[in-house]
């Protein structure tokens, strides 16, 4: 059985479809670090694409740090240390995996490292308009929790945390509002379904930011991100 499947007609460009298939094999571990991938002729036949399309796909994968091509040597899988984990398209490929919980569990570790300080900064720097936005999203979260509405909880929890990052006043936090928005939403979805809504923890964050109490906001964020509140903690 071929490692890859023929590319289907769709709105997505052919070289992007090819890159997605190869990326999934790498991210899932089916293709190992430093392993050579098949030659151009084999790949073109497996995908049913032209050399031009294949070369565009390998350029895309190279730009994400997943593969490296060398003349007379071939193309190999790069070490994980070179992968561009914060690239939006890379994150989109992670979501395609059948088992992406290990990646999401590692993302929880990143959240633990940066989010409490983001909440503390938001308590100090949030504008009046941003505080209004937080209030709106928290009220919607409260309604969703009371009605056991996971879909609306997920949407508004995402917007709540997105606004927190924007409210830090620090431009280096902005990517965690924009670039990571997709995987962040999926993370919240996994954490909420089948578990608690953690409304009280979010209320403590909200109260800390609204009152300008940086310590309260930081402590509340750390409490929210405790393993006991996160269904993905055991997946790491």
UniProtKB/TrEMBL annotation:
PROSITE patterns: HTH_GNTR
Record's keyword annotation contains Aminoacyl-tRNA synthetase: no
One GO MF term: DNA binding
Domain of life the protein comes from: Bacteria
Alphabetical list of Pfam families matching this protein: FCD, GntR
UniProt keywords, alphabetically: DNA-binding, Transcription, Transcription regulation
Ranges of residues in domain HTH gntR-type: 12-80
UniProt xrefs under PANTHER family: GNTR FAMILY REGULATORY PROTEIN, TRANSCRIPTIONAL REGULATOR, GNTR FAMILY
Protein name as annotated: GntR family transcriptional regulator
């Amino acid at each position: 059985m071929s490692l890859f499947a023929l590319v289907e007609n769709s709105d997505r460009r052919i070289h992007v479809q090819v890159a997605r298939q190869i990326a999934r094999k790498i991210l899932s571990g089916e293709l190992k670090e430093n392993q050579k991938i098949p030659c151009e002729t084999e790949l073109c036949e497996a995908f049913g694409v032209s050399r031009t399309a294949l070369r565009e796909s390998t350029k895309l994968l190279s730009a994400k740090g997943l593969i490296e091509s060398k003349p007379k040597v071939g193309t190999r899988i790069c070490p994980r240390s070179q992968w561009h984990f914060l690239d939006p398209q890379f994150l989109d490929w992670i979501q395609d995996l059948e088992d992406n919980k290990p990646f999401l569990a590692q993302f929880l570790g990143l959240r633990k490292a940066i989010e409490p300080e983001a909440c503390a900064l938001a308590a100090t720097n949030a504008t009046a308009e941003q505080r209004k936005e937080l209030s709106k999203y928290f009220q919607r979260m409260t309604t969703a929790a009371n009605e056991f509405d996971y879909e609306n909880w997920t949407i508004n929890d995402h917007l709540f945390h997105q606004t927190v990052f924007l409210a830090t006043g620090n431009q280096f936090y902005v990517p965690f509002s924009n670039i990571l928005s997709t995987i962040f939403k999926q993370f919240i979805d996994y954490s909420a379904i089948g578990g608690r809504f953690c409304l009280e923890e979010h209320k403590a964050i909200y109260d800390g930011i609204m009152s300008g109490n940086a310590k309260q906001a930081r402590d509340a964020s750390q409490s929210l991100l405790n393993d006991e509140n996160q269904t993905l903690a055991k997946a790491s």
